[in-house]
Amino acid sequence: MKPLRVIFAGTPEFAVPSLSALVRAQASPRARLTLELAAVYTQPDRPAGRGRRLQASPVKVLALAQGLRVIQPESLKKNPEAVARLAAFDADLMVVVAFGLILPRAVLDAPRLGCVNVHASLLPRWRGAAPIQRALLAGDQETGVCIMHMESGLDTGPVYHRIRTPIGADENAARLHDRLARLGAQALIEALPGIVDGSLIPKPQPDAQATYAHKLTKEEAGIDWRQPAELIERQVRALDPWPVAQTRIGTETLRIWKAVADPDQPVTEPAGTVISATRDGIDVATGCGVLRIISVQPSGRRAMPAADYINARAIDGALLG
Asked: How far apart are CA 130 and CA 123, in angstroms?
């Protein structure tokens, strides 16, 4: 039986479990589907770190380690040579996971079965660039992953398969990201046989229920202490590991890595006032309830327990923000 020729397109850590799953399926004689990874597309190496040295994407690192062909176009849009090269692979399917480049219609139509995408939300909720963080900011109790047939619209295509999962009460974006990356790989391998043999029929998304997950910005990191404690706690969890929620104490910027809300604790002090600072944490008045800060990072230093931070300074009664 002729193996399924697959092109994989992805860039960040989120895409690594899906590529790993395809590599294992390619090597396994017991896999439900015989496949061949024809090429791996990923974004070009980018400057990173203090030295701004070029750094390969996590997907490229894995692909090279597995001896796979790696292609790194700057763009596929209005680039007929790059599109022709992709089409020349004569692929049956293209699997796209957080690739980060726009795919023109010519690319979407090049593989025999089209392109499928692993998306980190329960579509049509949170289409767009930051579904994990937006779900946390909104206080969603549940999220998941979808395997979607790609169309020209942003995450608008019909869905082949989805896996639901509850969001943990103290789960931050970093942990949820890793968990959904693994679930995405699982969903992809579960869906592929049905996509290939036509037994899995994708269901159109109800557009009326769609929400958009805008890309995160640094400006969203600033804490408004007039907000309820629960909302600020969500902000802290959603912005870990980037851009990290932060506030001001005097002339210093203080990043907040972990905090717990007590929405029912009555508050009489102005929002942003440090009510108490003990070994258990720093309690701050908010617009509704109290936020206990557990872990902080002062400017130019590493993250530390709030208890260590207050050992070096008295902050009772200080006004944050």
From this structure: 13
pTM for this prediction: 0.95
Q: What pLDDT digit, counting tens, does each position of 136-147 carry?
A: 999 999 999 999
Dihedral class, residue 9 (left if φ above 0, else alpha if ψ from -120 to 50, else beta)? beta
pLDDT per position as a tens digit, 221-254: 999 999 999 999 999 999 999 999 999 999 999 9
Closest CA to 137 of 40, 60, 243: 243
d(CA 80, CA 107): 10
* Cα–Cα distance list, 239 to 6, 91, 221, 246, 258 (Å): 34, 38, 7, 10, 10
Answer whether residue 8 shows pLDDT above 80.
yes
- Report whether 147 contacts 187 (CB < 8 A): yes
Position 111, amino acid: P
pLDDT band at 268 (very low <50, low <70, confident <90, very high): very high
First to last CA, the chain: 65
Backbone angles phi, psi at 282, to 5 degrees: -105, 115
